[in-house]
Amino acid sequence: MSRITMTFALAALLGSVTQGAMAETIENNGPVTMIDLKESRIRVNDTDYVLPNRVQVNSMPAIYQLREGSVISFLAESGAPPTITSIGMLQQPPIQKQTRSTNAHE
């Protein structure tokens, strides 16, 4: 291997290590106020986070177990937007029952 090739390889390796070291871990908790399944995003404390399907609770993607009002605790990696890497469900809101109309004309 030539000296120039080795220099570029070393520079690329150092660049990838430096970028990985720059990722900051965020720890947060709060109620979920928005869920966007299409974009895999949720909002907690007025901040949007990506919640990928690989983040699971009880062998199921966590995003499919959330409801607006769910209280969660999580770790995320900084980014635009931050990506959740670990999640814990602290409290689920009650499931709202649908009421049937008592009016026979509807």
Automatic annotation (TrEMBL):
<protein>
    <submittedName>
        <fullName>PilY2 family type 4a fimbrial biogenesis protein</fullName>
    </submittedName>
</protein>
<dbReference type="InterPro" id="IPR042230">
    <property type="entry name" value="CusF_sf"/>
</dbReference>
<feature type="signal peptide">
    <location>
        <begin position="1"/>
        <end position="23"/>
    </location>
</feature>
<dbReference type="Pfam" id="PF14481">
    <property type="entry name" value="Fimbrial_PilY2"/>
</dbReference>
<feature type="region of interest" description="Disordered">
    <location>
        <begin position="85"/>
        <end position="106"/>
    </location>
</feature>
<keyword id="KW-0732">Signal</keyword>
<dbReference type="InterPro" id="IPR029497">
    <property type="entry name" value="Fimbrial_PilY2"/>
</dbReference>
